[in-house]
UniProtKB/TrEMBL annotation:
GO CC annotation terms, alphabetical: cytoplasm
Positions with biased composition (Pro residues): 14-24
Stretch list, region Disordered: 1-29
Similarity comment: family membership: Belongs to the thioredoxin family.
Protein name: Tetratricopeptide repeat protein
Length: 291
């Protein structure tokens, strides 16, 4: 069903929005009555933050009234983890048409702007709880979450907090493992990825001898000494010197040494914001050295 529904046409206002109940913490209203005018804001945009359960029915159908009452209680109890959007099929026929509704009540889950699951008719409260739990499990980590209340700091991911605590305690290997566990569950977690790169560098740099730069200057053809010296210079907040040292190896070294130095350069680049001037300059110098 998720690939066959075109929701874009419902983004155009058709009538003034209905009066809505007051918002709770974070601006999330647990239950909203949705029409065609506010469908985009209350369903499509809201589903980028939390799943939206859309109940399509009508007041003259006892099953719709019964199901909506059960859903409303569950939505209030969920405290912003998901939102219930009720739709009157008579007032918003285009919404029902977009979802391909053939009978009422019909209930759909929308996440990241797309329908992900649906059922028609009435199911037991236990089955409904299980269905909603499945939606929350399926969308975990994929949505931005409820916005913070005004003046409230956004909640930190407890996994990241635990990894930071290990780092603050001096357990760098344990912190790296904690961040890698996050990446195993959520490969796109940018904060964890950046932390792993930084910590791996710090662990490696701890073993660099104090005379690494002098030793490398005395042996320009020794690629291992150049790598250690570059780490020492980066640790000393001398990125231009570190990059320049490795670019020199790429420019003049043996083929195997060139590949080693280039790989280390790319690794060091990832420790910085790619928009930083010294990174842009070093990438340009690396390209010139290669070609």
């Amino acid at each position: 069903m998720s690939g066959a529904v075109d929701l874009a046409g419902l983004a155009q206002p058709q009538r003034p929005p209905q009066e809505q109940p007051p918002a709770g913490p974070g601006g999330i209203r647990p239950v909203v009555a949705v029409g065609e005018a506010d469908f985009e804001a209350e369903v499509l945009q809201r589903s980028m933050q939390v799943p939206v359960i859309v109940s399509i029915g009508a007041a003259e159908y006892p099953q719709s009234v019964q199901l909506d009452a059960t859903l409303e209680s569950a939505a209030v109890a969920a405290a912003g983890r998901w939102v219930l959007a009720t739709v009157d099929i008579h007032n918003a026929p285009r919404i029902a048409q977009a979802f391909g509704v053939q009978s009422v009540p019909t209930v759909l889950a929308v996440a990241a702007g797309r329908p992900v699951d649906a059922f028609a008719g009435v199911i037991s409260e236990a089955e409904l709880d299980q269905w909603i739990s499945g939606i929350l499990d399926a969308t975990a980590g994929q949505l931005s979450g409820p916005p913070p209340a005004e003046g409230e700091e956004p909640a930190r991911d407890p996994r990241l907090v635990a990894a930071e605590d290990l780092m603050d305690a001096g357990d760098l290997p344990g912190s790296i493992q904690a961040y890698e566990n996050i990446l195993a569950e959520e490969p796109g977690n940018e904060e964890a990825g950046a932390a792993v790169r930084q910590l791996r560098f710090l662990v490696r740099a701890q073993d660099v001898p104090g005379d690494a730069v002098d030793a490398a200057d005395a042996a320009p053809g020794d690629v291992d000494k150049q790598l250690r010296a570059a780490d020492a210079q980066l640790l000393a907040q001398q990125p231009d010197a570190a990059f320049g040292r490795l670019i020199a190896v790429v420019r003049t070294g043996a083929p195997e040494d060139k590949a080693t130095a280039r790989a280390r350069l790319l690794e060091l680049f990832d420790l910085f914001d790619p928009a930083e001037e010294h990174v842009i300059r070093a990438r340009r110098d690396l390209a010139n050295a290669l070609y």
